């Protein structure tokens, strides 16, 4: 008769020795524990990680242990599903023998595979972005080929925009003409303009300054005597002698 308790106890001791930093006992009856599994570092030091929780069934290893993903880091939902499928497959294949180490090793390999997939996905995204950038650059240099159809479409749009601008300008000019007042209208609307100059002189009083240097006495002006002018003709056109 198989002593399941003995086999389980021996495996627990071995697991604690193999995974000293990631093995944690949760309960002794039924035996339950966790093992944290981390992938190898990727190209940019990225890792994925999961903590597996195992609980021995009464007849383990002739029966599969209970298992679940207790926690995880950087795993997508489809990655979690793949890991659970992997655990189910490995448990079925290893019935009758202690299998926790085998299950953990399979998950470890799966996590390394996921990191490689992340690297491949990033490389593909990088190539796609580079291709899109090249296509955009080609469009800049080559532009869009001109056809009769797209030229007529462009011209119709251009003419419509031009007509709209013309209407807007005419409307603005008409509005400006309506708002502009004539000199008569200004005086009619603002009667202060009638007395503005007089008011200025009254406000100035005796403070209006005159620059006398702008004027000269008549004696200082050098004026020629018209009678000394040889061309002077007192009976010329416009004189009183013609009458």
From TrEMBL:
CDD domains: RWD_RWDD1. InterPro entries: GIR2-like (IPR040213), RWD_dom (IPR006575), UBQ-conjugating_enzyme/RWD (IPR016135), ZC3H15/TMA46_C (IPR032378). PROSITE patterns: RWD. Residues 111-175 form a coiled coil. GO terms for cellular component: cytoplasm. Residues 211-243 are annotated as: Disordered. Residues 211-231 have a biased composition (Acidic residues). Belongs to the RWDD1/GIR2 family. This is RWD domain-containing protein 1. It comes from Heterocephalus glaber. The gene is Rwdd1.
